[in-house]
Design a protein that fits this description.
Layout: E1 2-9, E2 12-25, E3 28-36, H1 39-46
Antiparallel strand pairs: 1-2, 2-3
Length: about 45
């Protein structure tokens, strides 16, 4: 799934693209992998 995310946290703003990959097993999500378009910006936002 490809998505755009945005948010504000502790005075920092984030506007980023993401790809989320879900792995299914027996009808349930067994793993989730998230890839950001701008890793340094996302890292600074969550730090």
């Amino acid at each position: 799934m490809q998505t755009e995310v945005s948010g504000e946290r502790n005075g920092r703003k984030l506007n980023d693209g993401e790809v989320v990959i879900f792995t299914l097993a027996d009808g349930r999500v067994s793993a989730v992998h998230l890839f950001t378009a701008n890793y340094p910006e996302a890292l600074a936002f969550w730090s």
